Amino acid sequence: MKQVKIIECPRDAMQGIKAFIPTERKVAYLQSLLRVGFDTIDFGSFVSPKAIPQMQDTAEVLAQLDLSATTSKLLAIIANTKGAELASVHPEIQYLGYPFSISENFQMRNTHKTIAESIITLQEILNIADKSNKEVVAYLSMGFGNPYGDPWNVEIVGEWTEKLAAMGVTILSLSDTIGSSTPEVIDYLFSNLIPKYPDVEFGAHLHTTPNKWHEKTDAAYKAGCRRFDGAIQGFGGCPMAKDELTGNMPTEKMLSYFTAEKAVTNLNSLSFESAYNEATKLFSEFH
């Protein structure tokens, strides 16, 4: 039996929504997710409220969560050292997620830093995480291709993996920021990188259109990936993707796939159904 980690990403689902979702509604939704048994919940972010107004109440949300009965770990996204410092004071947070783009263009748009500056930031974040007993999850944005015309090939991804692993990154999630990944590239990257870096846990943060989810999940799983990010019903995704049909990988679709493959996810199906219904209510009101 193969064990798979599912990382549910309500932060990714909510962050692009213009209307502010009241703190208590976020708390209620997260509480429903905490009962499911996801390995990790990407619940919020400590970034500038100017950049992502929706997430400005992350600290308040965290203060109101009841974590007494959950096995899920919490992950917060940060974009710089200030964010890492803000997140690191919360003992409830286990993971700091840092989007590191191998596209110069996207890194500038996303964090207003060059790649060279981002490497320095990442080192500082690793130090902060170390001191506060947290782990860093580095997201390799544009891991599967690049729409901005920057050079991209699988070798570049390999080089960055090597650099980040040497810096001490132990969890590396390859991110298909705009949904451009193909099964061939997914297969090639995971089947080459996973055996080469046995100390790194590789994850798949895939964005997809409704008809491509199966081939992408299948390619990553069969190439040895055992860590998958998703969002219930595929809500959210990257605001920079051109195609409005491109969203997060729908968690329920991945679950149906893993059930068919007899992989173990440790999720409570009744609690999942309840969280799914909560998502429908929340995201039909706020979208």
As a whole number of angstroms, the C-alpha radius of gyration is 17 Å
What's the pLDDT, averaged over the residues? 92
What share of the residues does DSSP label as strand, in percent? 15-25%
Would you tell me which CATH topology applies? TIM Barrel
CATH structural class? Alpha Beta
Largest sheet, order of strands side by side?
8-1-2-3-4-5-6-7-9
Give the SSE order as H and E letters.
EHHEHEHEHHEHEHEHEEHH
- Distinct helical segment count: 11
Structurally, the number of domains stands at 1
Share of residues in helices: 40-55%
> Biggest β-sheet, characterized?
9 strands, mixed
CATH architecture: Alpha-Beta Barrel
- Write down the overall geometry: globular
> Stretches where pLDDT falls below 50 for ≥5 residues?
none
Class based on secondary structure composition and strand pairing: alpha/beta
CATH homology group: Aldolase class I
How far is the first residue's CA from the last residue's CA?
38 Å
Task: Give an overview of the whole structure.
This protein is α/β, with parallel strands linked by helices and 287 residues long. It has one domain (5-285): Aldolase class I (TIM Barrel). The protein has helices at residues 10-14, 23-34, 58-64, 81-88, 104-111, 115-131, 154-167, 183-196, 213-222, 251-260, 269-285; strands spanning 5-8, 40-46, 73-78, 93-101, 135-141, 171-176, 201-208, 227-230, 247-248. The chain has a nine-stranded mixed β-sheet. The longest helix has 17 residues, at 115-131.
Précis, in short:
The protein has helices at 10-14, 23-34, 58-64, 81-88, 104-111, 115-131, 154-167, 183-196, 213-222, 251-260, 269-285; strands spanning 5-8, 40-46, 73-78, 93-101, 135-141, 171-176, 201-208, 227-230, 247-248. The protein has 287 residues and is α/β, with parallel strands linked by helices. It has a single domain (5-285), classed as Aldolase class I (TIM Barrel, Alpha-Beta Barrel).
